[in-house]
Amino acid sequence: MPLKAILPHTYTHLTGEDRRRESIFKEKNCLEAELRSRLRRKKSKISNMSKRGILERLAEGVVIGDGGFVFALEKRGYVKAGPWTPEATVEHPEAVRQLHREFLRAGSDVMQTFTFYASDDKLDNRGNEAASKHSGAKINQAACEIAREVANEGDALVAGGICQTPSYLSGKTKAEVQQEFRKQLDVFIKNDVDFMICEYFEHVEEAEWAVEVCKEMGKPIAANLCIGPEGDMHGISTGECAVRLAKCGADIVGVNCHFDPFVSLEAIRLMKEALDKEGLKPYLMCQPLAYHTPDCNKQGFIDLPEFPFALEPRLSTRFDMHKYARQAYDLGVRYIGGCCGFEPYHIRAVAEELAEERGCKPKGSEKHGVWGSELRMHTKPWVRARARRNYWESLNPASGRPYCASMSKPAAWGITQGHKHLTQHTEATTTDELSELYSFKS
Ligand SMILES: [Zn+2]
What is written in the cofactor note of this entry (predicted)? Predict the structure, then answer.
């Protein structure tokens, strides 16, 4: 075939025969593109159908979750701290996609849609323009597409995610709060997510409202509160919270965010105790912070003076995560992941610790010898001597900060649902409002 026929657009003077060929060429290309797209959709459908569901996976073994998207993407310049909303799904889809890919490579079995705080009332709270610029529906839709795309690059499932709303904290009615959830759920239903995660609820009541709405979808539901061993912000005990979540229909119950892995596991232990007493057997789930928080009160790391911009000295090492994964597994937790501060290498450590139980190592381990074995190749002999488990397992890392206090004093303002300073409003925070906060005493 002459070159002219293959690349007709490179010629300015086309003959009738050229035009005819060009039209056939375009038509053929369109048809091929459509066929490719149909094939992709069919393949995606088949691969979704052939994937085992979340409850089957939990029944057979351990499921590894992902890490914290808002914190990781804030540090990389794609999320604004303060609102912590996920409009990056529309503005910088490549950044969201890359983080999903890194978690998948690290061993995550679930791609949770980046829809944290993506309810309409949060997207236009206190001067946030995410709603007016993009709309909640568009942000949630983009999140679903990215999560599914990456999940299909491996054997991962897609979980739709919803969390607490400013409407609830402002004291709005159950119907109004559930309406906020429903708008997000419409998108998750359309995209046929594999299951739902209701997470980051400070009050079990709002989590129950969320689970109730998710039940209408007919998909498995995980429900996580962001609480520690002291219970929810209304004073309901941690054990009672778990019982209520299981009774309202959550298949998987646990905690996420706000506390470190070990404080979170203490909360799970209380949940398990109460569930056992009631004869309830939901799967247990834990997705804690990667920051050490032994000094937190009931409100968790939000109350720490270092929140959110100076938490780095508290960051867990990969070896802390080995310990966390083992303790979680031994406690009976079968959905083990992370939240704020958890980077892909933390998840890789969880996957490596549980490699025997899972029967495989993550792809990300290709460049990582467990317990420092790759250090055998190091030039310096004293570093080569660290190529062993015992060295890293017993290490007590220095904070690196002279005169650094070992604990902080939490803010402890004692403000929760219904307080005027928690009220949702679309206008930006004024200087007068801020001044009032500077001198606030609860
Ligand atoms: Zn978090």
Answer: Binds 1 zinc ion per subunit.
